[in-house]
Design goal:
Blueprint lengths: L2 E7 L2 E6 L3 E3 L7 E6 L5 E5 L9 E5 L5 E5 L3 E5 L5 E4 L10 E4 L6 E5 L2 E6 L4 E5 L3 E6 L4 E8 L3 H4 L9 E6 L5 E6 L6 E6 L5 E6 L4 E5 L4 E6 L9 E7 L5 E7 L5 E5 L5 E5 L1 H7 L10 E6 L5 E5 L3 E5 L5 E5 L5 E6 L5 E6 L4 E5 L3
Antiparallel strand pairs: 1-2, 1-29, 3-32, 4-5, 5-6, 6-7, 8-9, 9-10, 10-11, 12-13, 13-16, 14-15, 16-17, 18-19, 19-20, 20-21, 22-23, 23-24, 24-25, 26-27, 27-28, 28-29, 30-31, 31-32
Length: about 350
């Protein structure tokens, strides 16, 4: 049955959109990441925090059949080079390791005491974040004391040389040494990072909305937006760089806006959106949207946003914005197919949905 696509900007009557093709039935609960691969297949990550779904990775063919799968490795995922990278086993309940995985079997090649966000820089170097630093918090004085070391598997830490200061770093697989690129606050580590196409500029963001652009060669800060003072102003949950490298999109929750489009060269705000209130006002779903959970860029510059209420918002290059109901639960993962003809969505339901996309 076709669904109504509500137009938020500019205001115009709803239009009909074909319903989704449902795939991966019963095997894709709590999807957190979807990556479209060059051969038409997809790598899908599931949440590890629910008892009914222990989580893991599944490499699915173009027809959505499973080519390989594994548990004990989770999203986020980076498939820019071989091998791939994913979050490794948890340590005391935290993301404190990453694993390089074989693209054919999804078997672990190596475990490192590093954590998200991460990506390949070359065949022997990668970008990652230090694990959570050790520390003590005094509940009476609210004072935090930084202690030596990191909360990660000691056997893994003994194999690497990590800086004393937490933050995003460049790690060399041969020398096992790390070079700090951006220092992070112990209370607000970086959760999102993306490189420019030429890998010269690193863009990174924290949950509290700190966004920074750094020249990777010499760690020079090109521009920086400070973190908000109160998490109610902006909780940053999704972050993406446009294919042409000209703009960054930051989305999450907050007031008065929940989505910022920044100029990648300067950090200046191009657009401020209150997408949740617009979706609720248009009554796209019966639930109110508490946050924006997922972002995906189309190769032509359009982008899609997944919401906690089950709506998908489409922001097109011409400035028009529309939304439609995609699920009855949060949409937490989105990916456009490599040819741009389809949008794949996943969330807390036990399936994935494939939507036809036309600009």
């Amino acid at each position: 049955m076709p669904i109504d696509e509500r137009w938020l900007l500019p205001k115009q009557p709803a239009t009909q959109r074909p319903s989704a093709k449902i795939v991966a039935k019963g095997s894709a609960k709590n999807t957190t990441d979807i990556v479209a691969l060059s051969d038409g297949s997809y790598l899908v990550a599931h949440h590890e925090g629910f008892a009914a779904s222990p989580g893991g990775l599944a490499h699915r063919n173009a027809d959505w059949s499973i080519r390989a799968s594994r548990t004990d490795a989770f999203g986020p995922i980076h498939c820019g080079r071989s091998p791939w990278i994913a979050s490794g086993p948890l340590y005391e309940g935290e993301h404190a390791s990453l694993c390089t995985i074989d693209p054919e079997t999804l078997d672990t090649r190596e475990l490192l005491p590093l954590t998200r966000p991460f990506c390949w820089l070359s065949d022997t170097a990668l970008l990652a974040h230090t694990p959570t630093p050790n520390g003590a918090f005094d509940k009476k004085t609210f004072a935090y004391t930084r202690l030596p070391g990191y909360n990660a598997d000691p056997s893994l830490l003994s194999q690497c040389r990590l800086p004393e200061t937490p933050g995003l770093l460049q790690f060399d697989l041969v020398s096992r040494e790390a070079r700090l690129l951006i220092e992070a606050s112990p209370h607000d580590g970086f959760r999102h990072a993306v490189l420019s196409a030429d890998q010269r500029v690193l863009f990174a963001a924290t949950s509290y909305g700190r966004v920074i652009a750094v020249r990777r060669e010499d760690a020079t800060v090109l521009w920086e937006r400070p973190a908000v003072k109160n998490i109610t102003q902006l909780s940053l949950l999704a972050f993406a760089l446009s294919p042409d490298g000209s703009q960054l999109v930051c989305a999450g929750s907050g007031a008065p806006h929940d989505c910022l489009v920044l100029d990648a060269a300067t950090g200046a705000v191009r657009h401020e959106y209150a997408l949740r209130s617009a979706v609720d006002a248009a009554r796209v779903t019966s639930k109110q949207a508490s946050s924006l959970r997922a972002l995906a860029f189309h190769r032509d510059g359009h982008f899609a946003v997944g919401t906690s209420s089950g709506a998908i918002i489409l922001a097109r290059r011409d400035g028009s914005i529309s939304a439609f109901k995609a699920a009855s639960c949060p949409v937490t993962a989105l990916a456009f197919s490599r040819d741009g003809s389809e949008l794949v969505s996943g969330g807390h339901e036990e399936c994935l949905r494939v939507w036809a996309f036309e600009a």
